[in-house]
């Protein structure tokens, strides 16, 4: 069989994206320690920290109060999800000028397959350079890019020279690039697998290559074979352009009209659980909750509320849905249909970090 065609993959990762947006829009923040997240006087936590803050040991998920103790002069800012989404759309529009094959990982991170879209640039490296230039000139932000023959190596490479870095790993250099790295840098190896590998005396990717596949299969099952492949830089995953979900909803039409508030609340609670479960499976959180009510005459009013902090919590969604339904005539009229929708979705990891902000409560 002929060799598979050489792929050229870019991993584009914005530098301190959430903090960087604020710093760009407010020049007075330049050179200062900046944290995006919860209230340091309450139980808030750090959602994002700029590089100046990181020099003090401040990092994501750290209690905001502790961050303030580490650097009392830190500027604490509340997240602005609408602003981040708008900025992300502008950045991804730049990416689409180079290739339609884009896999969105989050608001600030994506894989680009430019294998068949080199165009006038002629190489993936030249495209990466031009992307970085345009993001800097047009958005006044920086993006670190890794260029490699597959997703595994491209993602590792993008973090290799942050911030504002470009690391190119050519096919002939993949093995040498990976060999000295800690095993944890390989996609799929978490804390538990890392601990097991360390007990086996395997701390670097090069160490991992020296053991037999049988030994890894004994410790990790079939995952051991994939682990060894990745140690050699083998990754056949494609860049897939699945649709990015913008909303999630559920609704129920009743066989007989419903006219008791207690029954309506019971249905809303169940549907809130379904929406929360759907968000959880996709690791998303919703900024806006909407309810839909249909009466026997087919009038169908809707009511929405946008939260200061996105949620994927069933109880929160249920309480809000109940409140929204009470802003309709459903408590006084028969109801034929009820629905709950979640929209303005964001990655749940970021939303979770601010759930304990007292001001959000």
Protein model, in words:
With 361 residues, the chain is α+β, with helices and mostly antiparallel strands. Among the domains are: 17-79, 3-Layer(aba) Sandwich (MutS, DNA mismatch repair protein, domain I); 179-231, DNA polymerase, domain 1; 247-352, Dna Ligase, domain 1 (2-Layer Sandwich). It is built from 14 helices and 12 strands. It has helices spanning 17-25, 51-54, 64-70, 81-96, 124-139, 151-158, 174-178, 191-199, 205-209, 213-220, 223-231, 261-281, 314-325, 348-352, and strands spanning 9-14, 34-37, 46-49, 75-77, 102-106, 109-113, 143-148, 166-168, 247-258, 284-294, 302-311, 335-347. The strands form 3 sheets. It has a 5-stranded mixed sheet. α4 (81-96) runs antiparallel to α5 (124-139). The longest helix has 21 residues, at 261-281. It is globular and about 70 Å long.
Q: Which properties best describe this structure?
A:
361 residues; alpha+beta; MutS, DNA mismatch repair protein, domain I; Dna Ligase, domain 1; five-stranded mixed β-sheet; 14 helices; 37% helix; 23% strand; globular; disordered C terminus
């Amino acid at each position: 069989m002929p060799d598979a065609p050489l792929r050229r993959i870019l991993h584009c990762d914005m530098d301190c994206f959430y903090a960087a947006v604020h710093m760009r829009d407010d020049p007075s923040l330049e050179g200062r320690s900046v944290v995006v997240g919860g209230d340091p006087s309450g139980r808030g936590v750090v959602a994002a920290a700029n590089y100046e803050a990181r020099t003090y040991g401040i990092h994501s998920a750290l209690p905001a109060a502790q961050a303030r103790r580490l650097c009392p002069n830190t500027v604490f800012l509340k997240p602005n999800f609408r602003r981040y989404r708008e900025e992300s759309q502008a950045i991804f529009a730049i990416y689409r000028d180079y290739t339609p094959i884009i896999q969105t990982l989050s608001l600030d991170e994506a894989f680009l397959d430019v294998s068949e879209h080199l165009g006038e640039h002629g190489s993936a490296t030249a495209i990466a350079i031009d992307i970085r230039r345009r993001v800097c000139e047009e958005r006044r932000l920086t993006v670190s890019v890794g260029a490699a023959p597959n997703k595994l190596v491209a993602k590792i490479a993008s973090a290799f020279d942050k911030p504002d870095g470009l690391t190119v790993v050519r096919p002939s250099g993949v093995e040498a690039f990976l060999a000295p790295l800690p095993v944890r840098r390989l996609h799929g190896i978490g804390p538990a697998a890392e601990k097991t590998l360390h007990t086996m005396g395997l701390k670097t990717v090069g160490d991992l290559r020296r053991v037999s596949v049988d030994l890894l299969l004994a410790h990790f099952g079939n995952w051991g074979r994939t682990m060894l492949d990745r140690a050699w830089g083998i990754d056949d995953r494609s860049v897939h352009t699945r649709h990015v979900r913008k909303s999630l909803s559920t609704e129920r039409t009743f066989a007989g009209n419903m006219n008791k508030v207690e029954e309506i609340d019971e249905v809303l609670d169940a549907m809130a659980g379904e929406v929360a479960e759907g968000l959880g499976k996709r690791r998303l959180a919703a900024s806006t909750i909407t309810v839909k009510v249909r009466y026997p005459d087919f009038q169908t009013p809707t009511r929405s509320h946008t939260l200061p902090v996105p949620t994927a919590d069933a109880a929160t969604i249920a309480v809000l849905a109940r409140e929204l339904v009470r802003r309709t005539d459903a408590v006084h009229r028969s109801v034929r249909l009820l629905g709950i929708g979640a929209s303005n979705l964001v990655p749940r990891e970021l939303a979770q970090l601010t759930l304990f902000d007292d001001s959000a409560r």
